[in-house]
């Protein structure tokens, strides 16, 4: 795991300084080594977190004739087989690193080499003979990669994180800001900056240095249309075998390796398979919360106790309680992302990685299972909305009941469902994804955004272009896999963990597991009462029903309460001299109105207010009112 950066078509002296600057800002991703190399028109740089071939796997790596170079962030899990084949065909390797496989595959097939790679990766290959740069990202989008092309000068630069650039270097992208306030993240290929783009998952961005053009090539996409006709038991058996293989592949490392363990089924499955496949004890790291409604400590201990009984002497649980979320923690973690990002679970995710990094360099997690196997409650809510219109009319009166218990209370959840189910069918999942606040977003916008209006249901539908699922609810899962998973979940995990120089691997996002998941009819994943049906069936011999049937809790943070209490003074101070208001992004009167209403407990605007706080902090960092170098 590493950080990569580079330039093409820059003057050599300027290129060396720029890449050096970016590597300084990516140093947290690679504390074990640093190197930059000039090749033709390119300057490639790399900071290294050593995991495989610790002694010799230094990057950038050049091929035999010194014409092609690679820098790669991530892991290629099938590299051993690929390497053996390449050697048999005459390629000479300088290292035992998995990254060098990328280089030699490019030599054989410059157009399609990435299709042979199974893993999590973001790589840059520069071919000096062809004057060609290829930026490529893994299928699910586990590893990030960004680039900027100045079309006037033909200069291109790329990096693993947006934070590699100064926050005030580029003008802001109003469309991305609108999307952020609706979704709490910015979806690739957009970023908050004009003319700075994220390489989308399963995609290569190819820069022809002679023509000064970037061509986008999608090399992989999930196909939800082709379904097999097997029984639940047959689907489960194959899934079991593929997950076991995926975990086993991710146990390779020359550094300390362990796992994350929550109270849910996904991490429990990964933990059980890790213990089964490993011949040594394994450490599992977990965190709990002081707030009972958000705390999974008892479930975590219960799962760990079961695993310890099944695998005597092999389970070591490390559980840490988080007493509070100070405002300083929010300001710090929000600054890591290089653009506005408002998933509050970035805070516990960062704290968990910091905690685990005391002893572990690599951890395995259960990310991706919810999107692939129907784990979210919102999918059930969408199913109910299809046939529950009578209930929507009968329970209209509930909408006007105050909800002091917040969105996780029974009344809060019912109110959200009624608001969603009462909308036209084509708009319902947009309403869910926007946390029920698309109209409130539009009202909050200032003059700089008001002319274009809020991020709309039509734009949300446009994000589903090319989708293949026929089932309406499965299309929600397809949306989440293609957008929410890489844009929110995997972004959060990568940035939060790499701030502590920790690599997180996700077996459920193995290429073969993902392919198998799409072949199952939706009924194998979810019904009115159960979620992740096939996953529970696949591992019923490894885990008890008490674990397999637990309801999802997630890494929730009590944002509504924090805004009303712990963070109230700091947030009130932000609004008093708001740059977002001063620069015309937000409307002062509407901001004050929803702030007062939220503080009174008569409404829950926590999602919208958190987005506004994060955006304000971003603008202040950009305006040098917050020193972003404190993050490095």
Structural summary, described in words:
- The chain has 632 residues and is an alpha+beta fold.
- Among the domains are: 217 residues, Aminohydrolase, N-terminal nucleophile (Ntn) domain (Glutamine Phosphoribosylpyrophosphate, subunit 1, domain 1, 4-Layer Sandwich), CATH 3.60.20.10; 209 residues, Rossmann fold (3-Layer(aba) Sandwich).
- Helix content is 41%, strand content 16%.
- The chain is built from 26 helices and 17 strands.
- β8 and β9 form a beta hairpin.
- α2 crosses α3 and α11 runs antiparallel to α18.
Portion in beta strands: 15-25%
Which percent range fits the helix content?
40-55%
- The computed structural class is alpha+beta
At the fold tier of CATH, the topology name of the domain at 2-218 is Glutamine Phosphoribosylpyrophosphate, subunit 1, domain 1
Strand arrangement across the biggest beta sheet: 2-3-1-9-8-10
Task: Report the count of strand segments.
Answer: 17
The CATH C-level name of the domain at 2-218 is Alpha Beta
CATH architecture grouping of the domain at 2-218: 4-Layer Sandwich
Intertermini distance: 18 Å
For the largest beta-sheet, the strand count, sense and barrel status come to:
6 strands, antiparallel
Q: Output mean pLDDT.
A: 91
């Amino acid at each position: 795991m590493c950080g990569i950066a580079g330039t093409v078509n820059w003057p050599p002296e300027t290129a060396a300084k720029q890449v050096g600057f970016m590597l300084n800002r990516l140093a947290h991703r690679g504390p074990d080594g640093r190197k930059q190399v000039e090749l033709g028109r390119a300057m490639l740089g790399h900071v290294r977190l050593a995991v495989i071939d610790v002694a010799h796997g230094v990057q950038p790596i050049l091929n035999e004739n010194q014409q092609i170079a690679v820098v790669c962030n991530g892991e290629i899990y099938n590299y051993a087989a690929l390497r053996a084949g390449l050697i048999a065909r005459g390629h000479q390797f300088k290292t035992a690193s998995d990254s060098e496989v990328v280089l030699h595959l490019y030599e054989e097939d410059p157009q399609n080499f990435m299709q042979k790679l199974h893993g999590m990766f973001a790589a840059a290959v520069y071919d000096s003979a062809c004057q060609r740069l290829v930026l490529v990202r893994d299928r699910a989008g586990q590893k990030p990669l960004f680039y900027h092309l100045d079309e006037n000068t033909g200069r291109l630069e790329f990096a693993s994180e947006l934070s590699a650039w100064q926050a005030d270097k580029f003008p802001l992208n109003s469309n991305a800001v609108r999307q952020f306030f609706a979704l709490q993240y910015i979806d690739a290929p957009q970023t908050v900056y004009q003319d700075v783009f994220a390489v989308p998952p399963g995609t290569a961005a190819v820069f022809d240095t002679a023509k000064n053009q970037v061509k986008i090539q999608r090399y992989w996409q999930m196909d939800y249309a082709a379904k097999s006709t097997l029984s639940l038991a047959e689907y489960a058996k194959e899934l079991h075998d593929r997950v076991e293989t995926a975990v086993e592949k991710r146990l390779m490392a020359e550094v300390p390796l362990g796992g994350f363990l929550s109270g849910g089924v996904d991490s429990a499955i990964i933990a059980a398979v890790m213990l089964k496949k490993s011949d040594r004890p394994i450490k599992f790291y977990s965190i709990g919360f002081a707030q009972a409604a958000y705390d999974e400590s008892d479930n975590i201990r219960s799962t760990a106790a079961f695993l310890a009984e099944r695998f005597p002497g092999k389970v070591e649980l490390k559980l840490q309680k988080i007493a509070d979320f100070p405002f300083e923690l929010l300001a710090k973690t929000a600054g890591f992302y290089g653009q506005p990002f408002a998933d509050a679970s970035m805070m516990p995710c960062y704290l968990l990685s910091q905690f685990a990094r005391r002893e572990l360099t690599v951890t395995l997690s259960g990310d991706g299972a919810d999107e692939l196997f129907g784990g979210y409650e919102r999918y059930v809510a969408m199913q109910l909305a299809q046939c529950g219109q009578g209930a929507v009319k009968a329970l209209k009166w509930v909408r006007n009941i105050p909800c002091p218990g917040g969105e996780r209370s029974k009344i809060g959840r019912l109110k959200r469902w009624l608001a969603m189910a009462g909308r036209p069918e084509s708009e319902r999942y947009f309403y869910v994804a926007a946390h029920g606040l698309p109209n409130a977003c539009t009202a909050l916008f200032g003059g700089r955004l008001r002319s274009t209006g809020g991020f709309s249901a039509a734009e949300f539908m446009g994000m589903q272009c090319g989708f293949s699922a026929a089932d309406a609810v499965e299309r929600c899962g397809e949306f989440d896999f293609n957008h929410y998973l890489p844009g929110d979940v995997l972004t959060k995990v990568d940035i939060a963990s790499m701030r502590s120089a920790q690599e997180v691997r996700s077996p459920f996002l193995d290429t073969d597991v993902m392919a198998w998941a799409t072949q199952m009819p939706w009924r194998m994943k979810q019904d009115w009462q159960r979620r992740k049906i096939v996953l529970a069936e696949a591992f019923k011999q490894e885990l008890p029903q008490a674990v397999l049937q637990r309801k999802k809790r997630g890494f929730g943070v009590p944002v509504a309460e924090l805004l009303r209490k712990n963070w109230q003074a700091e947030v009130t101070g932000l609004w008093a001299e708001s740059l977002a208001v001063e620069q015309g992004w937000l409307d002062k009167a509407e901001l004050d109105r929803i702030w007062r209403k939220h503080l009174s407990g008569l409404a829950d605007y926590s999602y919208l207010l958190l987005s506004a706080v994060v955006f304000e902090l971003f603008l202040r960092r950009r305006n040098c009112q917050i020193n972003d170098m404190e993050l490095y």
